[in-house]
Design brief:
By secondary structure, the chain is an alpha+beta fold. Helix content is 27%, strand content 42%. The radius of gyration is 16 Å and the shape is globular.
Length: 151
């Protein structure tokens, strides 16, 4: 009998822009501005680009991922996605942007549940240190994007 592995990682960083500007960078099309090779295919509903219930697809290193926007609070600068990588795992991704003076504290949570032995092995290989590095990488990409947009 299969028993799924689960893991949760939380991290964050600070951006030198207000939350209204920072939060938009975590939409499917907003991430396209700063994530290398990020190219979401918006599937449903037609014409939507960021709303609760939006379904979109990305192509990851190991295959396709299907994403669903499960919660979106624009006024509160919070969004939650569920991402399914078939045959591997399900991930819940939550992003919260909070204003501090003219800056934004970004908190990102990833919670994984294995869907197979392969997914369980991948989750078991994840670490808090690797997640911290991911957050540093995201901050670097966003800072470069923000600098380029100001220039």
């Amino acid at each position: 009998m299969f028993t799924p592995t689960a893991a949760e990682f939380t991290g964050g960083f600070t951006l030198a822009v207000p939350p209204e500007k920072a939060f938009e960078l975590f939409s499917p099309l907003g991430e396209k501005q700063w994530v290398p090779e990020w190219n979401p295919e918006l599937l449903h509903p037609p014409g939507a680009n960021w709303e609760r219930g939006l379904v979109f697809r990305t192509h990851e290193d190991r295959g396709e991922a299907v994403w669903i926007v499960t919660a979106l609070d624009r006024a509160g600068h919070q969004v939650e996605y569920h991402r399914v990588e078939s045959g591997r795992y399900l991930a819940r991704v939550s992003v919260r942007c909070r204003g501090v003076d003219s800056r934004t504290e970004v908190r990102v949570l990833y919670a994984f549940v294995g869907l197979s032995d392969t997914g369980n092995r991948e989750i078991a290989a994840m670490s808090a240190q690797a997640y911290e590095e991911k957050m540093r990488r995201w901050k670097g990409w966003i800072d470069r994007h923000l600098s380029a947009s100001r220039a």
